């Protein structure tokens, strides 16, 4: 979901529009590609590295993806976001990811 959101943001910029959020689309997509590669640990049932990788992603998602989106909105409104809907979708995607990363890091999933 995050990569799709960032891809739409990038395409909007390329067509002369504004990006969906404050996150620079290409660097953020690069980070999510690396994150997505870490999901392969889970696919191949390498539980310890999977849990470590998901745990390592928690601070980034919690701080940059959720907390800073909310703080920025409270402090400056939608400055840096294309719309309230874009802000809400971006924050929801990161919140969803944060919750599932916590589940994965805790090992609270079917093995």
Protein described:
The structure is a single chain. It is globular, with a radius of gyration of 15 Å. Helix content is 77%, strand content 0%. The chain is built from 4 helices and no strands. The model has no long low-confidence stretch (mean pLDDT 95).
Features:
4 helices; mainly alpha; 111 residues
The DSSP helix count reads 4
| Average residue-wise pLDDT | 95
Structural class: mainly alpha
Percent in strands: under 5%
Query: Taking Cα atoms only, what radius of gyration do you get, to the nearest Å?
Result: 15 Å
Q: Which blocks of ≥5 consecutive residues have pLDDT under 50?
A: none
At a glance:
The protein has 111 residues and is an all-alpha fold. The chain has 4 helices and no strands.
SSE inventory with pairings:
Blueprint: H1 2-14, H2 25-43, H3 47-76, H4 84-106
Helix pairs in contact: 1-2, 2-3, 3-4
């Amino acid at each position: 979901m995050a990569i799709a959101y960032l891809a739409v943001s990038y395409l909007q910029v390329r067509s002369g529009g504004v990006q969906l959020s404050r996150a620079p689309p290409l660097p953020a997509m690069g980070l999510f590609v690396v994150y997505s590669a870490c999901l392969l640990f889970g696919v191949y049932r390498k539980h310890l590295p999977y849990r470590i990788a998901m745990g390592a992603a928690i601070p980034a998602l919690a701080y940059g993806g959720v907390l800073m989106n909310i703080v920025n909105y409270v402090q400056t409104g939608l400055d840096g976001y294309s719309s309230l809907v874009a802000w809400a979708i971006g924050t929801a995607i990161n919140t969803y990811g944060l919750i599932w990363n916590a589940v994965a890091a805790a090992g609270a999933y079917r093995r």
